[in-house]
Automatic annotation (TrEMBL):
<keyword id="KW-0732">Signal</keyword>
<dbReference type="GO" id="GO:0009279">
    <property type="term" value="C:cell outer membrane"/>
</dbReference>
<dbReference type="GO" id="GO:0046813">
    <property type="term" value="P:receptor-mediated virion attachment to host cell"/>
</dbReference>
<dbReference type="InterPro" id="IPR050498">
    <property type="entry name" value="Ycf3"/>
</dbReference>
<protein>
    <submittedName>
        <fullName>Uncharacterized protein</fullName>
    </submittedName>
</protein>
<dbReference type="InterPro" id="IPR011990">
    <property type="entry name" value="TPR-like_helical_dom_sf"/>
</dbReference>
<keyword id="KW-0802">TPR repeat</keyword>
<keyword id="KW-0677">Repeat</keyword>
<feature type="repeat" description="TPR">
    <location>
        <begin position="40"/>
        <end position="73"/>
    </location>
</feature>
<dbReference type="InterPro" id="IPR019734">
    <property type="entry name" value="TPR_rpt"/>
</dbReference>
<feature type="signal peptide">
    <location>
        <begin position="1"/>
        <end position="19"/>
    </location>
</feature>
C-alpha cells in the first residue's frame, strides 16, 4: 500500500512537471512564430512592391526570405512561382505551385496560376489537360481572375 502511494505520488508529480515544461515551451515557440510571421509579412510586402516594379529577381529574393521566415506561407510560395516564371528562374517552379496548394488546398488563385503556367509551356497533350483541370478547380473554388 505504501509503495502504491509513493508510486502514485511520483507519477502525479512528474505529470504536472512535464505539463508545465511543455506549456512554457509552447508559449516560447508561439512567441517566436509570431515574430517570424511578422518578419515574413514584411518580406512578402517588399516582394509585392518589387514584383509590381518588374524587379523580379529582387522580388524572388524577398519571397524566399518570407518563406524562410514562415515555411507555411502559401501566398509567398505562389508569388515566388509567378516571379520565377517572369524572371525565367524555372528551377523548382513546380514545387512552389504545389507547395502553395498543399499548404492551402482551397487556394483558387494557386490552381489558376499553375494552370496558366502549364498552358504557357505546353502545346497540347497531358499538360494541356492538366491546365484545364487546374483552371476548372480554381473556378470550382470560386476564384475569379479578373
Amino acid at each position: 500500500m505504501k509503495r502504491t502511494i509513493i508510486l502514485l505520488f511520483f507519477l502525479f508529480h512528474f505529470s504536472f512537471t512535464n505539463a508545465n515544461e511543455k506549456y512554457s515551451y509552447n508559449k516560447y515557440t508561439s512567441a517566436t512564430l509570431s515574430l517570424d510571421t511578422a518578419k515574413a509579412n514584411k518580406f512578402y510586402k517588399k516582394g509585392l512592391i518589387s514584383a509590381k516594379n518588374e524587379n523580379y529577381k529582387e522580388a524572388f529574393d524577398y519571397f524566399t526570405k518570407a518563406i524562410n521566415s514562415n515555411p507555411n506561407f502559401a501566398e509567398a510560395y505562389l508569388k515566388r512561382a509567378i516571379v520565377r516564371y517572369k524572371a525565367k528562374i524555372y528551377e523548382n517552379i513546380w514545387g512552389d505551385y504545389d507547395m502553395a496548394i498543399k499548404l492551402k488546398p482551397d487556394y483558387g488563385e494557386a490552381y489558376y496560376e499553375r494552370g496558366r503556367f502549364k498552358g504557357q509551356i505546353s502545346g497540347s497533350g497531358l499538360l494541356k489537360r492538366a491546365e484545364n483541370e487546374d483552371i476548372k478547380k480554381a473556378k470550382e473554388l470560386g476564384y475569379k481572375p479578373f
